[in-house]
Amino acid sequence: MTVKRSLLLASTAFLLALATETLADAPPNILLITVDNLGYGDLQCYNPDSVIQTPSLDRLAAEGARLTSFYTASPTCTVSRACLLTGRIPQRHGLTDQLAGVEGNYGVGLNQNEILLPQILKRAPTPYATGCFGKWNIGFAAGSRPTERGFDEFIGNASGNLDYYRHNYRERHDLYQGTKELHREGEYTTDIFADAAVDFITRKSKATQPWFCYLPFNAPHFPTAGNKRPGEPNIWQAPDWAFEAYGLSPTETNPEKRYRAVVTALDRAIGRVLDALESAKATENTFVFLMSDNGAFRLGREGLDVGSNSPLRHGGVTCWEGGLRVVAMARWPGRIPAGSVVSQPMWSPDLVAASAKLVGAKLPSGVVFDGKNPLPILTDRAASPHESFYFVYRNHAALRKGDWKIVREKPNQPWQLFNLAEDLLETHDLASAHPERVQELERTFAEWERTF
User: Is residue 200 part of a domain?
Assistant: First the structure.
């Protein structure tokens, strides 16, 4: 072999090794999906008794980790989203209740001085392209909109719920591209948001810049009477094919059966987004995380509260497990073991910490973050970095520490005590049997409150 040929082969080998190293070290894309009010017991991979067809979500769980003790930091739509995007609990970022009515949803909402996840990713050593497609629900006044808070692109709704086909919230049209109204009446919102995410992923994966796609679906949020025309029935809305998947007619009147079609339509949309990653050859270098914003509502409203949180107690807007412990999955091929089940407790503020770690970004100084990096739990099955989890929503409050949890529904009520390892349904109040444990958790609750 000639010296020239040897040098050429060595040079080629070096360049290939360098390219491989660069690819391995390239910051990953991040796909963060939230679904709206999906119940802990709605998916067969969480509840074998469920009859809802969700092959895409089953696939996601099989290809990554299914989290069985993942908590939203608040059991309601608006507040949970603010916690997810700031990495902070409500008592720190100040948005402690649901935005109400047109005035609330189109007001300032979350304090505009709060730093959101896309803004952190913009400041990473390799700045990220950012897109948001779906339900915003944390304020839509000037200065509060997604493209004014770190997102390059936005297609979605400002409010907490909208009609799936008319795209109105109360009397107001509520579908936007950037800050301008987008009129696509007759198209199903779940598909609009999935299509936008597919387009973003396809375009951005062709470039060298890493990307962050936040995909907050409004499904399967319950239908709202205030969004309907006079005399129009307030029923669950889904495409005809989703009813046919169950052998049903689109005119089916049973709300439980109609709900199944809504979830199945959502599942197919998520599947199309995952397929887009495959088509773009971006699967291997994309961290995917999916969670429900809170548990299914179980308030006793006929035809509306049909989701299941089995085997958990109660649901949304409460601090029982059914309101706080939510469906969550994570996938990162080659890092997160496929088919793993993670029982270590984590919560939604952890996603800011995880994303910052993934991209090598520094979190802003002088800001208290409640999330801790969950990647060692997901990739190496490490212990949870959290000592305790604090929850307050309206009159409800709870604190989890280890396997123990205290709960109360009103501030003037005594704490109830449950051992979640032995009583996930929270049916056996052990407060009188373990007063010292109640006192310990009360002290931890008070310690949290001294930090605000």
Answer: yes
